[in-house]
Amino acid sequence: AAAAAATATVPGTPTPEGLACPPPPTASLLLQPGFSHEAIGAVDSFAPIEGGVFNVRCGPNYAKTGKKAPSAEPMYRIVNIDAFRSHPYVAPVTPLFAAPQLSSEAQAWDHPFIPRMFVLNTSMPNSPAQMFGHKEDGPSVHAVLFFEITPHAMQHFRNLDAAPPAYKLFAKYCETAIDDPAMRCRFKVIGMVDRFDILGIPKVLESYNGKPMMVRHVGQLFRGPKNAYLEMHICVHKFGFLSRKSLWAVRHKLPGVIITLGATIEARCDEEMPECMIFGTRASQVDPWAGPEIQPDAIAWMQQQLPLDQVVEESVPNTTA
Description:
By secondary structure, the protein is an alpha+beta fold.
């Protein structure tokens, strides 16, 4: 489906003069689902992982003790990963995709603010980093991860009064983060890279491998129609110069490593602890820069095909540094 993304037309659908318009990507542009945990190591593979891979905050009195412990099982499970190139970046990106196949339980999930699908859309610069005259947009590479709600998470969300603190915190996040920048800034990503040495990054930076990163001014949150999904867009264009320079320098080496990625909502008091991962996945030998390029006019055309009632809520501007 992806190979034809730049040239395919939609049968029976009028297209702008001289423009071959692609159908929405099918959530399988780059990677194929269904790899088992044991298959990690294959090219373009991904798999769900246990929450215990990640150490998260736990009480009591975390501010004093700094104690962490392995997370319980994630609330959402990976179902697909995609990648594509664009100019400028695209956010939200979920409306451009045909929804990935979800389990029957996830498809049936219906809640006023907790979505059946969580989407992580990371847009990265597709050009060398500039220290001066940098613009927070431009040629981009998108890595898009799709997660579905798990049966055990549904059980907790159906009875929030008796649910663990992390579930109550995530429910509050889902309900309020669109309009509350302070709550939205508590979204925390944890990334780990194996074989860190082959990336050629200074040894001193290895201490940051696996450290949590707060998504503050670089993040946007979108809610899909009828609460079908939440999409977190992380705009790497807004990262600092050294971070953008390092990413550009190692981009061609990323296919040689296995990346472990997860996210949680930061707990800040005993009543919100222990934290629990929202999602977690492990990806092997992935090269987002090899994804197909979708032209701006094709993206604009796809956006115009969306039904008028398919309104996407966008988070209010974030003024927190």
